[in-house]
């Protein structure tokens, strides 16, 4: 079944897009990531322009996050106070990201920047994830031993402290606020939910309790992607509603499946599979930076 994407000016197989949305939803429920870090590059590989892929992926991540938040909320796995502070930072970051997006687009470098950012981030995250998962599978005593949950020393030096009861923390709200700003910028530029950065940052920098990390990450992703969707619609006008609709059909169902699968499989095995996928995509995008595209011109929508 072929469908036409008006903004992308492209005919695609609708079933393939729905399946891609399903994979995104499963990843959302499994790891607390929005899945946009895979959706955007896969859409680019399929021929969707990077600007449209990034803007539309951030919209689709919202649907997957709603489903995931509801599932984790039933298990008391969401720190709403921590999430609200991150959302405030994400809104600020989305505004900054919007300005960067428009500037890079005006000078004709947005496609290159999006691809380069994905190569750096996916390569770094995939390598770290694979190393940690492999150590756990091999039975490395250092990897198997539970890490003491403690926030980074820099966090302790920040002024003013709030109690985040569900996370078990007494820290400055500036830390999650700044983390939210970073995620907001990345969401606007790359169409990612930011969970692949949020989850490890909340665990190893903020020192949050592991049982609320995934749910709180999805809560933040939900609201930040809503803000970025509105900004893309009003400023860049790169959101393809047909593409978003197809992705949403699969992602909402996939998120529920992901939360069920997460409880049945060893997390280190799931992580190493995800790391392998991430690294393959990073290598493919790195290769794409040095290959002349089929279309050497792009349409700049004012």
From TrEMBL:
Its main location: membrane. Keywords: Cell membrane, Membrane, Transmembrane, Transmembrane helix. Belongs to the 4-toluene sulfonate uptake permease (TSUP) (TC 2.A.102) family. This is Probable membrane transporter protein. The chain crosses the membrane at residues 12-38, 44-71, 83-104, 110-130, 169-197, 203-226, 238-258, 270-291. It is a multi-pass membrane protein. It comes from Qipengyuania pelagi. One of its GO terms (cellular component) is plasma membrane. The keyword Zinc-finger does not apply. It comes from the Bacteria. The keyword Mitochondrion does not apply. It holds the Pfam family TauE. It is found in: Cell membrane; Membrane.
